[in-house]
Amino acid sequence: MSLPYVVDAQTSLAPEELAVLREQYDTEAAAGHITTQTKFNYAWALVKSTSRQQMLHGVALLTEIYRTDPPRRRECLYYLSLGHYKLSNYDEAKRFNSLLLEREPQNLQAQSLNALIEKGVAKEGYIGMALLGGAATVAAVALSALLRRRR
């Protein structure tokens, strides 16, 4: 099933594009004031990255905007959710995405991302069950071996 907007979760900016946004951010930082728009643009690019470190930095910048600039919270919600999804922080991804869906139930980006988050949660659950099953099997084999030795 192809969902609209899931491309955000799968594509990153070209290194040259990221460099332009980083340069703008660094220039403003050196001047002593980073505008919220510059910070948001840079954070957005970092969240779209394939680098875990860059994604973490992007989420941190978006979290800062979310906390300090209430009028900009709405635009941060989707990318905070996306960043946490890409970092496999599904609880946080769900929390931010739910906040966005409460405000905008018809938002196709949020609906698409919600489907991805649910798939991630399910996949994580299957992996957990497989690990638990594997551990139970190892324990059963070990117990069986112990019981045979005692006879």
Automatic annotation (TrEMBL):
Name the predominant localization. Answer: mitochondrion
Subcellular location field: Mitochondrion outer membrane
Name the domain of life this protein comes from.
Eukaryota
Q: How does it sit in the membrane?
A: Single-pass membrane protein
Per UniProt, the keywords (alphabetical) are: Membrane, Mitochondrion, Mitochondrion outer membrane, Repeat, TPR repeat, Transmembrane, Transmembrane helix
| Gene Ontology annotations for the cellular component aspect, listed alphabetically | mitochondrial outer membrane; peroxisomal membrane
Q: Where are the transmembrane segments?
A: 126-147
Biological process (GO) annotations held by this record are:
autophagy of mitochondrion; mitochondrial fission; peroxisome fission
Instruction: Note the InterPro entries from the entry.
Output: Fis1, Fis1_cytosol, Fis1_TPR_C, Fis1_TPR_N, TPR-like_helical_dom_sf
Name the SUPFAM superfamilies on file. Answer: TPR-like
Q: What does this protein do?
A: Has a role in mitochondrial fission. Has a role in outer membrane fission but not matrix separation.
Notes on the domains: The C-terminus is required for mitochondrial localization, while the N-terminus is necessary for mitochondrial fission.
Q: Which family does it belong to?
A: Belongs to the FIS1 family.
Q: What is this protein called?
A: Mitochondrial fission 1 protein
Q: State the species of origin.
A: Malassezia cuniculi
Upper taxonomic classification of the species? Eukaryota, Fungi, Dikarya, Basidiomycota, Ustilaginomycotina
Q: Which gene is transcribed and translated to give this protein?
A: FIS1
